[in-house]
């Protein structure tokens, strides 16, 4: 079983990165093969609305999304991790998600993606305590998963953490990330 971790933060070794690493470690401890994709290191052009995807299920833009699509479709479990910027996902991660219009077209217009039992989880870290801090990001990740047949089954949302590595002062959050990874594999078994 393969679990793909999508790291949406531009800050390496920051809070989001550390939580995702723990979740992947948890998944691996439960027997999964894991892979981590760092979105900030990929060359992803934003969607240009050419709409070729609704005709043949392919994007005319050639960039790193060509390999991302394959990874998204082969993973049985996906963990998306992002810090919250202005109550939403990072621009890097949002560009990747927007380019998945291709997968949406394959599933809902062209009917080329079969039903699946794949599962997904979301990890988010925000500096503020706002009541609706994660609402927009959760909605985006839910619809991202739905676009290519992944069920949103779990989340870890951490408020009030901002400085690089500050999550280390919150061992329960790191433990919760590890357990999230294990649970995801158990749900897929």
Write the layout of secondary structure elements.
Elements: E1 2-7, H1 15-29, E2 33-38, H2 53-56, H3 65-74, E3 77-83, H4 91-98, H5 101-109, E4 118-126, H6 135-147, E5 150-159, H7 171-188
Parallel strand pairs: 1-2, 1-3, 3-4, 4-5
Helix pairs in contact: 1-7
In short:
The protein is of the alpha/beta class and 189 residues long. Helix content is 41%, strand content 20%. The protein has helices at residues 15-29, 53-56, 65-74, 91-98, 101-109, 135-147, 171-188; strands at residues 2-7, 33-38, 77-83, 118-126, 150-159.
- Mean pLDDT, as a whole number? 97
CATH-defined fold name? Rossmann fold
Contiguous helical run count: 7
User: Could you give me the name of the CATH homologous superfamily?
Assistant: Flavodoxin domain
Strand arrangement, largest sheet? 2-1-3-4-5
Strand content: 15-25%
Structural class by SSE content: alpha/beta
Helical proportion, percent range? 40-55%
Query: Which stretches of 5+ consecutive residues score pLDDT under 50?
Result: none
Q: In CATH, what is the class?
A: Alpha Beta
Q: What is the gyration radius calculated from CA atoms? A: 16 Å
Outline type:
globular
Q: Distance between termini?
A: 9 Å
Task: Count the domains.
Answer: 1
Element pattern in H and E: EHEHHEHHEHEH
Q: Supply the CATH architecture.
A: 3-Layer(aba) Sandwich
Q: Characterize the main sheet.
A: 5 strands, parallel
Total strands: 5
């Amino acid at each position: 079983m393969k679990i793909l971790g999508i790291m949406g933060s531009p800050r390496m070794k920051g809070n989001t990165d550390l939580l995702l690493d723990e979740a992947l470690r948890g998944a691996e401890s439960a027997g999964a093969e894991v892979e981590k994709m760092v979105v900030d290191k990929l060359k992803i052009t934003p969607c240009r609305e050419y709409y070729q995807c609704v005709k043949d299920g392919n994007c005319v833009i050639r960039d790193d999304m060509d390999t991302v699509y394959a990874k998204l479709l082969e993973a049985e479990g996906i963990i998306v991790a992002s810090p919250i910027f202005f109550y939403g996902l990072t621009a890097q991660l949002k560009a990747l998600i927007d380019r998945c219009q291709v997968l949406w077209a394959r599933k809902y217009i062209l009917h080329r993606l079969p039903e699946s039992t794949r599962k997904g989880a979301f990890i988010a870290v925000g500096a503020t305590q706002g009541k609706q801090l994660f609402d927009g990001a959760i909605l985006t990740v839910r619809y991202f998963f739905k676009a290519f047949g992944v069920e949103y089954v779990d989340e870890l949302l951490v408020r009030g953490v901002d400085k690089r590595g500050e999550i280390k002062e919150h061992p329960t959050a790191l433990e919760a990330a590890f357990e999230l990874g294990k649970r995801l594999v158990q749900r897929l078994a």
